[in-house]
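Target chain:
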Amino acid sequence: MPLAVGTKLDGYEVLGLLGAGGMGEVYRARDSALRREVAIKVLPSYVSRDPDRLRRFEQEAQAAAALNHPNILAVYRFCAFDGSPYLVAELLEGSTLREVLRHSALSPRKAIDYGAQIAHGLAAAHDKGIVHRDLKPENLFVTKDGRVKILDFGLARLMPRVSDADDYAPTQTAATNPGEVMGTAGYMSPEQVRGQTVDHHTDIFAFGAILYEMLSGKPAFRRSTTAETMTAILHDEPPSISQTAQTIPPGLQRVAHRCLEKSPEQRFQSASDLAFALEALSDSGSAPAVAERDRSTRSRWIWAAAAGVAAVLIAAFVLRWRMQPAVPVVESIAQLTDDGKPKSFMATDGMRIYYQDPATLRIGQVATAGGATAAVEMSFPHAVLDGITPDGSALLVNTPGDVVRAVSPMWFIPLPAGDPRRLGDFYAVRADIFPDGRVVFARYIQEADGKATGGSGWYWFVAEKDGSNPRKLISLPGNAGNVGFASVSPDGEEVVIVQEGPGDRRLVEISADGTGKREIRKLTAGERDFRWTPDGKYLVYRSGTDLQSNIWLLPMKTGLFRRGEEPIRMTNGPLSYSFPCPSRDGKQIFAVGTMRRGELVRYDMKSKQFVPFLGAISATDTTFSRGGQWVAYSSYPDHTIWRSRIDGSERTQLTFPPMNARFPFISPDGTKVSFDTDKGELYVVDANGGTPKKIADNTRYASWSPDGNYLLDTNFPGPVLQITDMRTGKSSALPAGHGMGGAFWLTQDVMVGTNNRFSSLVTFNLKTGQLTRLTPDMPGSIEHWMLSLDGKYMYFTTGGADPMAMRVRIADHQIETITSLKDFHRVVNFGNTQINVAPDGSPVFTRDTGYQEIYALNVRWPW
């Protein structure tokens, strides 16, 4: 029963009801002894009979009473009335943060102010060994004078402290059972969601979610159900704050996103550090006004001030000269596209951005100010974007043929429309354009000839704008199928080229006439996509892994106040940024921001619908044991190999980071799993776990022979198919003339896969040396293929403008179209889209539920 007005509670007179909630009613009351108004929180008797509710209520009182801080609600007493416990606390006038946020997001200044106050309050609680565990806008109160108070320690974890200074802190811990989830879904930390033991890092994560909401006006992890919200907390990153609030300072965004790191160790390590970081972002107060001075004195001060200013300027000049120079910084980030489709390499004419769709090999476009995307009209079914002419009148593309041997014709596609024009009569890849219209491109020369001496390898050429007079620029060590990109400097004087080699990547610079080769630096595997800034002072590039990459700058020309060539980091998540492209005016860097996630689905050929498979886990490259009882897969996007029963039980992790593992295959006897890595390494691991054993290098797509004694893999460069005897460890190439680009075992003597142009499916008989076509050349190259468990069908996907999922019956070469994949967003894996086959014959795919969008990074450059 609610307390009536006038009720006396041990010296407190009830004045009225303030509100009610799950943990009790709150009343305004008057303290007759001290003559002040207070708040009284009463736990009803029927609720107090619940031991757990009573324990939490007592815990709230103990936790709050142990604290004395201006940003934490003050608790004065804990008593009981007619069997109902109650606590007496200070009376607050104002509203909860939730009510404040219902109107709009906060300004950066106010968010910093509120955030710093909350952080100071948390620091005081943590210093007493108290973790709130249920921090959310409903439990934060903003008073009329702008003071923020932390409320409701009902779920607090009281951790005993050992220092003498903590004699008055609670010493009993209200334990949480292992695996018990406590808190509010949208603000839980990942460790809370898992039911693990939590510490102060949990409050920092919740603070990050609150700060994110204060800045963006939207919850960081809102989903339609609690279960989906918890899943998002475990696996998803919140959208960049700049998507909805473009004026938020990057430093403030980084604070919020650092608090939201999945790993507690990567968050701020204390609330005090967090408060300091926020206060460092706040603006300083205005300088005091200068009092008026006597006119006769003023002249003297003017001269003195002028001399002082001159001295300061000289000192600043010297200091600037001696200090580490200023560096470019990203001031804000704006999202330009919103279609969720895959995107990669970009070029811009200053008005529009042109980009590659890696899934369809089409080219899209969007205005530099953002908006709707559209396809570039062209007569080719697919094309690879290389660049744009200096005047923006045409795109330079190649139409992939045999890319491995660099026999791709190159074309100019006029903008906004027009008939394509062939560039010369040569075949090439990896082109870029000089300011005067000349073109630099790469070709792989099989052996020395009159034009290119020095043996097989990659040669870079320069041709006139119409393709005439191609002449060698430089030859670089490298293997067929493995060539880096080139980028021409804005003044046309230099070209930088990524020199690719086995386990060795280098960035080299060469003069436009082919002289003066200079190695700039050795590169890591994740450093790529180098482009010049318009002023020629920097190379912008991406660095990182498939899971997370960021945009960096490499200084190329030293100026009066710049020295050295140390890379400069421009972004720090939460999205993975790639394919940087400087704007024509140099004020922005366009980049593709990626949030990766997927769900496993199969295509039900009876209902003709895509349906969840294996619980719609985020995984690729599913493969099954011979009887279909076991499954192995690569989790996405972290690419670790797992094995489990088909129902998901007995789940075992077989690889661990930093190993980036894909394409698992279960041996015929079910005891081993082979897999590849992103470094082209082939491993085998016990199906029950253990240390993977390295088998070979430069390989991909390994599969087991029916007797389990051999592994067949595609070896690069080449490609060359090779067989490894697992009993002896010796490898040997398939006999000459097999004509295959990639294959699986069909029988002990027959291989099945694609031809070496990836245009049709073929079989190859090891004994007879006979190559047999299963399909004619398909429209669009064959991207991925998989043999059914019963060995009766080869399933495959095609690329091009209308990608399809198909299968061919091996016995009679009968081809069946399964479904169009044109509107199905597939995860791009190792440069193509995977297809697998479930034990019932259903094709299996990974639906891309993440997104790739183009963002504009607004850069402030140093003077």
The chain has four domains: 1-91, 95-161+183-282, 375-581, 599-849.
